[in-house]
Amino acid sequence: MLEIKNLHAELEDGGKQILKGVNLTVPAGQVHAIMGPNGSGKSTLSYVLSGRDGYEVTEGEATLDGQALLDMEPEERAAAGLFLAFQYPVEIPGVGNLTFLRTAVNAQRKARGEEELTAAEFLKVVREKAKSLNIDAEMLKRPVNVGFSGGEKKRNEILQMAMLEPRMCILDETDSGLDVDAMRLVAEGVNALRSPDRAFLVITHYQRLLDHIKPDVVHIMFDGRIIKTGGPELALEVEQNGYGELLAEVQ
Amino acid sequence: MSTTTLASAKPETAPQEPLALRLAALDLPVGGFTRAARADALTRLQAMGLPKGRDEYWRYTNPAAFNQPQPNALPVDESVLDSPLFTSIDRLRLVFVDGRFDAAASDELKGEGLEIASLATADAQADHWAAGVYGKLETAGQTPVARPFAALNTLAATDGVLIRVTGKVSRPVHLVYRRSDPLADVHLHHVLKLEAGSELTLLETGMVGARSNAVIEADLAKGAQLHHIAAKRAGYQKVGISQIFARVDAEALFKSFNLQVNGTLMRNESVLEIVGDDAVAHIAAAVLGDGRVGPFHQDDTVFITHAAERCESRQVYKKVLKSGARGVFQGKILVKPGAQKTDGYQISQALLLDDDSEFLAKPELEIYADDVKCSHGSTTGALDETALFYLRSRGVPKERATVLLVLSFLAAALEEVDDLRLRDEISERLDEWLTSRASELDPSGNGASAKA
């Protein structure tokens, strides 16, 4: 589903190279985790894939279901089925959460040539999905993420994901800032979306999220490259021994 | 009403002086019940003279277009209909054409709890309740800052509306402005007198004149509530100054919101004096200026005086500027001795959609009481790239995302409109307006970086 080949990227401002040849394949139906120390390029990878300004791809390619992602605008990537759950979801005062969600859902449907949802149809679906994430009506009415707790913001990200039904979901440190209960709730939301047609790339520092969202494959990223790939046991290994030993082994 | 030129009867001003030329170009009404106020205004105006660019309160706004004797012609576009704003709600409509009340086009001047007349009609009489307000609040508002155009207005006003409110009036009074004369130089003067416990909503839409000078004097007695919402249209070449003078007594609520889109030179002066305990005064504006078609310069100058205890004032100014547009904000809170427990808040913010636009802010606090809470903030910034990316990453196209973020920026000002019907209407109109121009709003390049 997601194919990344020899991806090199640098900061537009200053030209510092961050991604130095990432190779990664995530087939449909699988959950892949990327772990790695700070500064290894994990978040940059998620930004480059979703089309954030400020990065320049110097080499390599990335495709989603065979479509070249890197030439598309961020909204086109979203319509093609890519979703990024932000590490720090953005607050947007004055724009209601529901308005925002409906605008996003219908913009994607329109881009794909599908019929837009009416207000009634949309409300029915959103209420159902919000309920399973413990998001109440009041939270839906509030401005996007304004005054939300850390847990509420992350649940709101998962709600967006549930509404937009992407093919490929990237979760950027979704566990950061969450207590155990909030993390479980978020993980349950993610697990409910697992399906044979959908794939996940879970970026995290810690093993603990992976106790709740069980990965099929674990990659270790360091200095802009995937340096090791293995099964779930690789995450446990990192948790116990840290990255030091792994890095020494690879270098 | 007879009109003669008072200006010709003032030997102390040499004819070549700017003020003399300015006055000579006007047909100054002698006035009935306003006669004394007009004569007094002339004396005061002659003492202060027209503003000069070096005057402290005119440093950021060039008064030349207000000072020149004749307005520049502003073509009348017959295809432009009345603003669609507020048309869906039940309201009392008063139509002014080139600043003259048009009774035939207006609703009947009556309503429960309302005493209402046009200034021109009322001024044929020697006595009127409005004599207790006309020019009085304006005069009080001349200290400590001189406001020559407000005095000029009191002197030269040809029409306006006089409203006395005695009850809770649920039906808003809507002043609809229209133009027919491309050279109309309009002086409109409205007087609002809200008796104790009364309530009024005043709406203003349309374009007053080629050049306009408008004054509202609002006297709020104990517990009165005034909600004022102005969405006056300004063409790209429009020149206008409007001044609001409010006196807010105990437990009264004064709220004013102004939506301003386009205009070559627009200046709004708001002078609010809170004189009774536990009163609330809020003033807000949402401003959108695009200098692409013509120059845009918009100036909000606010002076709020706290002269009583436990009062709250709030100023919320939001300006979206692009293509060389210039926004000015001069806001002052004065807390007089003894005005304890004052809660004063002021925020002025500009969203610059490119590198060519400019926002000049001068927040001032002057506090002579020791138990008060006053805060102010001013920011200038570009569209938030992270927020833009967030919206786009959810599939919202860039143009729509930009419109949503501009609306988001303006939201805090719109929230000062309490009536949700009115607020939603304004919001929808703004959305439409922005959407129709979305491709032009696109912040090409990286926009302006944040300034202090």
TrEMBL record, chain A:
An annotated Gene Ontology molecular function: ATP binding
CDD domains: ABC_FeS_Assembly
InterPro entries: AAA+_ATPase (IPR003593), ABC_transporter-like_ATP-bd (IPR003439), ABC_transporter-like_CS (IPR017871), FeS-cluster_ATPase_SufC (IPR010230), P-loop_NTPase (IPR027417)
Statement: the UniProt record of this protein carries the keyword Oxidoreductase: no
Superkingdom in the source lineage: Bacteria
Record-linked PANTHER family: ABC TRANSPORTER I FAMILY MEMBER 6, CHLOROPLASTIC (PTHR43204:SF1)
Family per record: Belongs to the ABC transporter superfamily. Ycf16 family.
Name recorded for this polypeptide: Fe-S cluster assembly ATP-binding protein
TrEMBL record, chain B:
Location of the SUF system FeS cluster assembly SufBD core domain: 186-409
SUPFAM superfamilies the UniProt entry points to: Stabilizer of iron transporter SufD
Highest taxon listed in the record's lineage: Bacteria
Positions of the SUF system FeS cluster assembly SufBD N-terminal domain: 35-169
Example of a GO biological process term: iron-sulfur cluster assembly
Pfam families noted in UniProt: SUFBD_core, SufBD_N
Record InterPro entries: Fe-S_cluster_assembly_SufBD, SUF_FeS_clus_asmbl_SufBD_core, SUF_FeS_clus_asmbl_SufBD_sf, SufBD_N
Homology family: Belongs to the iron-sulfur cluster assembly SufBD family.
PANTHER family, sorted: PROTEIN ABCI7, CHLOROPLASTIC
Name by which UniProt lists this protein: Fe-S cluster assembly protein SufD
